[in-house]
Amino acid sequence: MKGIVFDIKRYSIHDGEGLRTTVFLKGCPLRCLWCHNPESQQLEPLMVWYENRCISCFSCVDSCKFNAINVDSDKKIEISTKLCSLCGECVKVCPTNAIEMIGKEYEAKELVSEILKDELFFEDGGGVTISGGEPFVQYDFLIEILSLLHNEQLNIALDTSGYTSKDKLLSSIEYVSLFLYDLKIMDSKKHKAYTGVNNKIILDNLESLDKNGAKTAVRIPVISTINDDNENIEKTIDFLLKLKNIVSVDLLPFHNMMTDKYKRLKMPYLLGNIAKPKDNEMEKLKKEFQLAGFQVNIGG
């Protein structure tokens, strides 16, 4: 079984309990306007050029057998997605790592072996978190990874948007110690406008996880003017109060540090100039969820 991974972050402290290794799988059915990892949306690997690293040696141009790399009048690299075969030769010859392939194919056992290099750091309550994109896009690969990690008796967290079939989601419960479950907007029309999908499946799946006893940390990205209004917060709290196995509510303040990624990937950034929520605004939201009885964390 093979899958596409676009990043592995070691020593993470924001993706579950303790010190963790977080594996990011490529592919996502959502198109959230605030997406911090736009490189994760497409399942296939991507070639990316970093202008600030380039020394204009053009060794990449000479190395490309498919004429997929050209230089424009400003001496900037242009990579044709139609002609590029993703062979990686340009990456190998670039002396400054100015060209990077985002997305690497792993066999499941190969990926687990890579993760196990960090096993020593998991002893104090840490473990492995599988994230995305949306991990369930690569369902078969995901389940094999989870099974292999479970056999190693590792603590496993799974970060998901919940936008998948109920059967697939519930089949992962036996391997997962904690679900990190994204909850964005309660109004279905507004949810579709900002993420590209209706939220009915997401809400139904969260209820199903809860009914089956799965422990869940609900993660709420806080985006000013979009989902931080009183109506949405009240509806979110009312919905969560119906559930019995929510271990925490994690409020994640929006930031726009990912806008350079959109430029680099030549993807339109459609969210506009929304500012990061202020600290006092985040504290106010925290108190509202705390008053409802939830353990609340404010993320980085």
CATH 4th-level superfamily of the largest domain: Aldolase class I
Note the gap between the termini.
34 Å
CATH names the topology of the largest domain as TIM Barrel
Structural class: alpha/beta
- Per DSSP, the total helix count is 10
Per CATH, the architecture of the largest domain is: Alpha-Beta Barrel
Task: Output the helix-strand order.
Answer: EEEHEEHEEHEHEHEHHEHEHHE
Written overview of the protein:
There is one protein chain. By secondary structure, the protein is an alpha/beta fold. The protein has 2 domains: 9-43 and 119-298, TIM Barrel, CATH 3.20.20; 46-102, Alpha-Beta Plaits (2-Layer Sandwich), CATH 3.30.70. Helices cover 30% and strands 23% of the residues. Helix 5 (166-171) links the parallel strand 9 (156-160) and strand 10. Helix 3 crosses helix 4. The longest helix is centred in the middle third of the chain and has 13 residues, at 139-151. It is globular, with a radius of gyration of 21 Å. The model has no long low-confidence stretch (mean pLDDT 95).
Summarize the structure.
This protein is α/β, with parallel strands linked by helices.
Output the keywords.
300 residues, 2 domains, Alpha-Beta Plaits, alpha/beta, TIM Barrel, 10 helices, two-stranded antiparallel ribbon
Layout of strands and helices, then pairs:
Elements: E1 2-12, E2 20-25, E3 46-49, H1 59-63, E4 69-71, E5 77-79, H2 89-93, E6 99-102, E7 104-107, H3 108-116, E8 127-131, H4 139-151, E9 156-160, H5 166-171, E10 178-182, H6 188-195, H7 200-211, E11 216-222, H8 230-240, E12 246-253, H9 259-265, H10 279-291, E13 296-298
Parallel strand pairs: 2-8, 8-9, 9-10, 10-11, 11-12, 12-13
Antiparallel strand pairs: 1-2, 1-7, 3-6, 4-5
Helix pairs in contact: 3-4
